Amino acid sequence: MIRTAWLVAKKDLLIERRSRVLLWQVLPFGAMALLLSGLALGPAHAGTSSAGPGLFYLVMLFVALLMINRSYVIESTPGTRASVQTLGLDPAGVFLGKSLALCVELWLSGLVLLAGTVLVLHTGLHGALVALPSVLVTLAAMSAAGTLYGALTAGAQGAATLLPVLTLPAFAPLLVAGERSFSAALTHSGLWEWWLIVAVALVAYVGVGILLYGVLEES
Amino acid sequence: MIKQLSQRLLGPVTLLCLALTFWLGLWVTPPDRVQGNLVRLLYVHPAVAWVALYVSFGTATIASILYLWKRTRSFTMDRIAHCAMEVSVVFIVLTLITGSIWGRPTWGVWWAWDARLTSTAILGVLAVGYLALRRANDDSTLRARRSAVFAILSAINVPIIHFSVQWWKTLHQGATVFTSNRQLLVHGSMAWTLLLSFVGFTLLFFWLLRARYRLEVLRESTQQMMLDEALLLRQREGVM
Amino acid sequence: MAKDLVVTLHDAVVLSSGFPLLSGVELEIEAQTLSVVTGANGAGKTSLLRLLAGLVSLSSGEGTVAGIDLVNGDLRQLRRRVGWLGHEGSFYNDLSVRENLVFAASALERPLDDIDAAAHRVGLGSRLETTTKALSAGQRRRLGLAWLLLRRAELWLLDEPYASLDDQGRVFFDALLADVVDAGASVVLSAHDPLRSATLHPREIVVRGGRVAGGAS
Predict the structure, then answer these.
(1) Which of A143, B217, C26, C60 shows the greatest Cβ crowding within 10 Å of its Cβ?
(2) In DSSP terms, which residues pair with B184 in a beta bridge?
């Protein structure tokens, strides 16, 4: 399982490094979304609002949706899916590998957009650094959940539009927990329950993914 | 014999329970000291929410688990899960509407960022998502598997969503029927009417589920006839 | 002495969106043979190959492929034992030829040393570092073959493998298929028309209306 996970993660990240979709398409989109968030707040609030953490996670959520979709688009080029299916890869390993690659991509995007939040929305740098561990864990949970939901919609009619409908409800608690723990970091108050939600979600999604990914792959 | 009798009686008993609930709720039970006549929603909203959140979603989840379990795997389980989820959408919408009607005079707004309200709305999106997922997959086996996994994921999500939103902010009144020490908060005719409403709406769910299930079986048999015809036509292509 | 059967299908039906792709196939294929499935567009050639590869499940009927039951058997096991080459190609466009082959070899737990030999065998020795999306249609087909050579599958399933191949490619392909059968594997390929090969003498399986309409040995 671990060997397959490593193989799949390496392959996904290599494809990402070659295609540069994250760098040239997704990150500019994220930066633009962050700027638009500031514009939506209005000139009076754009630089002084406490909405930074919430807007950061909202933008990350959109970025995650794009990257989950991308993670399955690379598998669905004509012929690839059938050929990879005949390699007989361990489904639990494929799930872990795809989650890992998505996690690395979301971490990279998260770091860039976190810097953007500090710069554009004037969120405190120290607070953002304190919030970093919680941001990384939340994004890891998003990756595991996203990989599962991506597999649910892969190859379905209107997969790109179906994905957000199925994924957003699952992301709701992660958004809440992530935003609260980020805000807590800014105000220097620890809120253990948010860590608990993210940890439970991460463990639950990884566990369910390992158990059920094979069911989703079979047709 | 008993099965036939219970199936035949399900509809009339459901109607009787609901008619009694409405009669008791509207005319026999007294108004509340604080909420006045608004309290009469107590005989609709909690029971509808109970069916939406626990009975129907629970039925869909259990049927989905039984579908994925190899020993009990059959399209009957998939059909039950699908039908229960469809009925669930109806009850979730009813829960939100009756909750809003109750919330407007109590909280002063139709929608509040309350834990139960928000998590019920998210649950509604999950249920609609389940139905959308089914429509997006043509292959019956793939559809059944994907929907079963999604139903289980949704069931796992429900408590996570609930606690997250509850910790986030809550306005909702506390437990309606029992205190945390399991002591009844509602007494006398109000308690009996409340109990009857739970029985009535639960029976209504099973009645609707049965009707929807029968419809689904009919739809599938029509589809099978069309398939047989398509198969014959396809085979004739080979002869010509 | 009767030869072993690598494929047996009885009244095999495969449905997709309510349409019968296969409408009751009766078929037996002996091991270590070369068969070519022919038929018009939409006759069911690709669906038949996909069924044999375990990529679609039987809607009704019964069958075994490489000893694995298509109804109750482990289709994942079956997929590991067959080699599939779709007519669209079978690899990641953003990876180089070598990276694609490394991925396939690692997934199949084959030695990476086999990669150079496989690439040279199909004439892609000088293209190992080329990105796959830069390959021509014929070269992509050759890459698919290299992918299959790494597999050492017992049943090769090739969907219209002669499409996009030039005359030189056809001759090369004929020789390769002959070697594969000599080495003990079975090959089933699809084509629009009967195979025009000077060296190969495959069994022809004619598919029409989702059924096997006839065949000559």
Answers:
(1) A143
(2) B178
